[in-house]
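Board work, copied verbatim: ABC transporter permease
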Amino acid sequence: MFFTYLRRELRRRRKAALVVASGLALGIALVIVVGAVSEGMSQAQARVLQSLYGLGTDMTVTKAAEPPGEGQAQGRPRFEFDAKESGDDSDQSSDMVIVQGQSLADSTVAKVADQDGVADTVGGLSARVMKVNGQFTRGEIEPGQTPPGGGRGGDGGEGGSGGDRVRGGGAAFDVNSYTLFGTDVAQQDLGPLTSSSITSGRTFKAAETDAEVAVVDSAYAKEQKLKVGGKLTVSGTAYAVIGIATADSGDAAANVYVPLKQAQTLADAKGKVTTVYVRATDSQRIDAVKAAVQKNVPDTTVTTSADLADTVSGSLSTAADLASGVGRWLSVIVLAAAFVVAGLLTSSAVSRRVREFGTLKALGWRSGRVTRQVVGEALVNGLIGGALGIALGLAGAWAVTAFGPTLTAELGRGTGGFGGGGFGGGGPARQTAGRAVDIALTAPVSLGAIGLAVGLAVAGGLVAGAFGGWRASRLRPADALRRIA
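↓ predict structure ↓
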């Protein structure tokens, strides 16, 4: 009887049911879209941070910044070229490997590993290679000329027009700069290289701790026409290219990766690292580990992924703020308004059915049965609204993914982020502009969002049913009799 009456009443009042369901659907759809966009922002931000932190890295430890004027006096790069005795023009080339940031003793890695809550650590050395190559060209000596009317010959003496002159000659040099990272090949599950996938060749072997081998980022390999099996010369040492790596985030942490010992030798920084990458035993203990390292390992700066996320600027940050702030509040307001409107419409519909419910009570229906009937109708309306809201929400999320803008994220201007605690760790990196990364906006819808939509639909139906049920429970058979009369 309950379901028969329910089906009949919903068919009779299709328009009213559709209005209630549509209001709930709009509110639920907005919640789904805003939640999907927020999740997309979180994933985009994670992709940006991956290129600096690497997969599984919870924090980095770098040397604390020294006061201005202390420990920062570094000589300017000096390139020397050998003199050539040959009369032929010849190519000249020289390069220099400069440590990026301030160095820590590699014993710091063990000190950090000893802190409570630390699961794993690995050290790395960031450097920049500046390579100058070009050619000196000899000039041609042109003898002096004797002026008309006599005088001394073209020896450049008195009465002459001048001595011998040199025409042409000079030098043309190109400067090429790229980043190099020394990675601990015995422990490759931490550090920036883990945010890249080997797309050609292979990665390092654990035994290649001091081997002259290199893994090259795919973008740099394409630019320099490097392939697996080729050679890359750094400071006179030829490194065999064993693999090509493609960054998962689209922006690699370094152009070239070599074993840590090789990087220390090239940069004249034996026993030094610039960054210690740390994985905590539990994500809930990251703050505690950070505090322990700062207390027990002096002269260091600890940066977590959450700290680095705060330095992300650009349109990605703006959109994330809108989605998490304005968007969520707007969805809450719209959803609350939809619940109230659904309740008022249901209550109003009950008021128009006074004769019907009064007659039913006169025929023996109890108030509880009438109330259950009204709540049942409202609950079905809510479920219909939930189904429509899920469909609209999925369509909206798909539209955002398909037609959404490409966002720009910029990491680490000034003393934070890229220069402060991520890859690079300070020094020269602090003085450079942040890294800009383009991220396509997506709006993934999770099963949790679908479950939330169903829960909201049920809640909306119950709210509307509560309004209507309260109104229906107050009806008396006498009201129906007065209407009939």
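The longest strand covers residues 118-137.
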